[in-house]
Every structure is written in structure tokens, then in C-alpha cells.
Amino acid sequence: MNEFYVALGANLPTSNHPPSVTLRAAIAAIGQENIEVVAVSPFYQTPCFPPGAGPDYVNAAAYLKSPTSPKDMLNKLHKIEASFGRERKQRWGMRTLDLDLIACGDLVMPDRDTYSHWHHLAPEAQRTAVPDDLILPHPRLQDRAFVLVPLRDIAAQWRHPVLKLTVTEMCTALSPEDLAEIRMLGA
Known about the structure:
This protein is an alpha+beta fold and 187 residues long. It has helices spanning 19-31, 70-83, 112-119, 123-126, 145-155, 167-173, 176-180; strands at residues 2-10, 36-40, 44-46, 57-66, 98-104, 183-184. The relative contact order is 0.20. The mean pLDDT is 90.
């Protein structure tokens, strides 16, 4: 069984339903794909990324188990996104649903050199450059409070296989300002 960590997000309504309803429905859809939903974080309101690109997001993280390969998992997640009206028109644009495959256990894909290239990619290049292959762990994971804070709720001790830091340690390394922008819904 492979262990997967997925970041969920939405900032546009679907069928007149707010993003939080979309995320709940997406989690149910994931469970219908021969995927065990082991844990789901609370939902958080987070600022749009990049700043000014649209309404605030609702974000969460999920811990999943499945015998499927990482590439097949990514295909399943993309299929679910499309069923909720996700269109891939603009990198980092507004979306009805975003299901990002963040990690698969301690796997580094496709290899450490390729991971390193994407991890060290200059910020201005990140807006337009898109990898041809699945990169795991997600090369921007350590930089994003909207991913790390929910992930900490369900996998605080998961250790990044390249950086050798736990989710808690990566959260601690973020600026207090970045962390303060992430607010639990209903709290």
C-alpha cells in the first residue's frame, strides 16, 4: 500500500456551492476510487496565492492509502478535479478544485537531480515552467503555509525525504506572518 499526502484547495464555487462544500464532496469522490481516506485535516481559510489572483481559498490536507502508483494517483486526482469543473487555463489561477499530490511516503520522483532542479527553480520561472513529469515530493511544499499547516494536523511527523525535516519543523521555519494568515474555519 502506498501512502499519499494530498493538498486540497478551492476558491471558486461549483454549482452555487461554496468551496468548503466542494472539498467535502471531493473527499467523498476520492474514497470512491479504490483509495482509503485515512485522515483529513480541518478546513482553513487562506489568502489567494499568488496574492491578488482571486478570492481567498479554503484549504485542507488528506492522508490516503492505495495500491495505485503515484502517476495513477495523480491521474485519478485530475479526473476528480475535472468532474468539479476544474479547467487548467492559467498556472496558479483561480479554481473550483485543486488536488495536489504532495508526497508518496519517502519516495523521490523521478530522481533526486530532477527534484533538485525544480526545488531550486527561481521564483519568476515558477510561474511559467511546468514539469513534464511528476515531481515528488512537491518542490514548493516547504514554502507554503497553506499546505503545511493543514498537513501538520494529519502528518506532523512525516519527514521530507530530501530536506530531512518533519512537517512540524517546516512549519516552524515559516515566517510568523505567513502562519498568521492561515485561519481554521469555524474557529
